[in-house]
Amino acid sequence: MNGSKHTASFVPLFIASFLCALCLAVSCHAQEDKRILLLNSYNMNLSWTASVTNGVKAELSALGPSVRLYVEFMDTKNFLEDRYLDLLKQQYRLKYGDVHFDAIITSDDDAARFALKYRDELFNSAPIVFCGVNDMAFPARDDFKNSTGVLELTDIAGTLDSALRLQPNLKNIYIITDQSTTSRIKRKEIQHISKDYGDRLGFIWLDDMSMDEIRKTVSNLPNNSAILLVLFTSDSHGHTFTFTESLVRIYSVANSPIYGMWDFYLGNGIVGGMITSGHVQGEMAVELAAEILNGKKADDIPVILQRSNQYMFDYAVMKQFNINPDLVPDNSLVINMPESIYIKYKFEVWTILCVFALLTGVIIILLINKAARRKAEHELEELTRYQESLIEERTHELVARSSQLEKANYELKKLDTLKTGVLNTVSHDLRTPLTSVLGFCKIIDRDFKKFFLPVCSMNEKLGERGDRIRDNLGIIEDEGGRLIRLINDFLDLSKIESEEMVWNDISLSPALFLEQIRPILQGYFVDSNVSFVLRIKSNLPRIFIDRDRLLQVLTNLVGNAVKFTQEGTVSVIADMTEGRWLRITVEDSGIGIPLEELSNVFEKFYQVNRDSEAVVIDRGSGMGLAISKQIVNHYGGTLKVFSEKGKGSSFILTVPPGR
Ligand code: ADP
Fold first, then answer.
1. Parallel, antiparallel or unpaired: strands 505-508 and 310-314
2. Which of 40, 208, 512, 616 is the most buried (most CB within 10 A)?
3. What angle do CA 44, 46, 48 make, to 5 degrees?
């Protein structure tokens, strides 16, 4: 079932495809079948013939590639005898006997006549389209049938009028013709219209002359003359010339402007005239042939009289003969016009203009930039000036302040010196009587104990009084001793600071020294719960130092350690640093120093606030550590503290090795 369904649907599809292919093939065949023969009267070297041929080819190419063009040149300007025409017939029969032409286009009179006469014999009775035919009676011939075409109507009057217009004083026009068919036709026309010009213009014929005679004549024409070159392809001596050759020869010697009627002369020496174009003739013939190809009968297409002539002039030749180019009629085509510099160098002009505009733009930008930079520089200069004045002002102020400070410093130093002097004096003055007071106090206590206390013991009341007196004497002794220590500390510090201290430096063995002062240090631990340890490492470096000052430092450190330690151990350890400096560490297991106070303990008169702590401590002067640091610093050493509240403290002094 399925298979038959498929077959059924394929049948109409196949038929449609076949019909399409057939139509395509038929249309292609039809297009390919179009053949046109272009039969030229003259040969290809004749610019007119070339112009017609080009016109035919150009117009045919617009019709598409389906039309094949065959081109023949009969060359009847050179050969017109019957023998030659018979040969041509034989040739064409051989070539085109089997070819079916859809149309024959002929150019000029000879080809038109030949085609009309031998069409049935040579060209399968193909329809004829003629062009370039000057013989106006041609379409009236008896054998004119199945034909149409373009009659070439040269506008002789238009050319003569243009000559009169360009040369207002023109008197005579010399007409050059040959014996060709076209020339004979044109001669008749000119003779006919010459009557219209009456006395205004004389017509002088230069025909049946040799080229040399013509050249001689045109080189000696009177003033206010002009030449009308109709056609001249062969002279009276039988010499033949192309259109261009004959014009060039005549033009090279002519003393008067030459006018013409065909475009093949323009650009080769004629001034111009009402010009007929071979190219246009060819184009128009193809237009008529196209109608025949489309199925129209040639006899149904009327013969055209070509009226596409146009005024054309050569600027360069006009200039040569001093003809004012402004005199040419309106809508004229003028060739060889000097190109304006702008037209000639359009690209260069625009390039230069663009470059110029670009450069101008760049220059403007640079100028704007420069102005902006100048403005910025100016502003910067002003700012710099302002800053300099500000700095100068501030400098003056600072100098003034500095001198004020110097003055104040000087005053302060003076005051400090004065204060130190006063304090020194006061301290000395205090120490002497204080020593006496303490001495007498001891003597009184001794005498009182020896002589009065035994007597007092007899009476209970006196005994009590006696004990109280001894206690009071003890207090005086203690306080006096404290006062003397305070004064001594103060005097030491002040001597070090004022560099008045006398240093009795000697070379010292640390181990020996420490062994010698061991009893002194142990003395601090009498009546104490704290044990003392002294450890001395061997090979300690010798130091150069004042023995008493080092003792002062160590007794101060050990005294503090004992004072701030309730129980445990105070250790004095002597060893050396990696750099072989003597290092003595005084370590205790006492109450320690709060972290925030550590940096202050070496300051003068500084004492850590112990009010909150449940320890009763003998108040010192607050100068012991300050003096110790000054002494160690004097020897280039260091004194540092490490402590933790409640766990103990370590004071570490280092002294550089000495002699
Ligand atoms: P003072 O004569 O008052 O002891 P110092 O200059 O010797 O003065 O000591 C300053 C302060 O440093 C002391 O008041 C004390 O509070 C603290 N201090 C010094 N040594 C120790 C120590 N080993 N343990 C705890 N506190 C110490």
1. unpaired
2. 40
3. 105
Buried b or exposed e, range 572-606, using 16+ CB within 10 angstroms: bbbebeeeebbbbbbbbbbbbbeeebbeebbebee
User: Residue by residue, what is the 3-state secondary structure of 19-62?
Assistant: HHHHHHHHHHHHHHCCEEEEEECCCCCCHHHHHHHHHHHHHHHH
* C-alpha to C-alpha distances, 191 to 105, 153, 197, 309, nearest whole angstrom: 31, 16, 11, 21
Compute the residue count for the chain.
659
Alpha-helix residue ranges (DSSP H) falling in 232-323: 243-253, 278-293, 315-320
Q: Rounded to 5 degrees, what are φ and ψ at 286?
A: -65, -40
Give the dihedral sign, CA 210/212/214/216.
Answer: negative
pTM over 0.85: no
Atom of ligand 1 nearest to the CA of 627: 6
Encode pLDDT of 159-179 as tens digits.
999 999 999 999 999 999 998
What distance in angstroms lies between residue 635's CA and the mean position of ligand 1's atoms? 22
Residues in contact with 590: Cβ distance below 8 Å, sequence separation at least 6, in sequence order: 561, 564, 565, 566, 568, 648, 649
Token pair of 626 as six digits: 């300050």
For residues 563-579, give the mean pLDDT: 95
CATH architecture of 156-275+308-338: 3-Layer(aba) Sandwich (3.40)
Question: What DSSP designation does 222 have?
Answer: P
Cβ 178 under 6 angstroms from ligand 1 = no
Ligand 1 lined by 76 (C-beta under 6 Å):
no
Q: Give the 3-state secondary structure of residue 517.
A: helix
Tokens of 469: 């007196």
Q: Strand pairing of 68-73 and 35-40?
A: parallel
Q: Interior CA angle at 46 toward 159 and 106, to 5°?
A: 90
Q: Are 524 and 562 in contact (CB under 8 A)?
A: yes
Residue 606 CA, closest ligand 1 atom number: 10
pLDDT band at 134 (very low <50, low <70, confident <90, very high): confident
Cα of 612 vs centre of ligand 1, distance in Å, is: 16
Write the CATH number of the domain with boundaries 22-151: 3.40.50.2300
- Distance of CA 10 to CAs 2, 18, 24, 80, Å? 13, 12, 21, 67
Nearest CA to ligand 1 atom 20: 560
Report the CATH fold assignment for 505-655: Heat Shock Protein 90 (3.30.565)
Q: Which DSSP string corresponds to 134-149? A: --TTGGGSTT--SEEE
Q: How confident is the model at residue 269 (pLDDT cuts 50, 70, 90)?
A: very high
**What average pLDDT score do residues 321-344 get?**
87
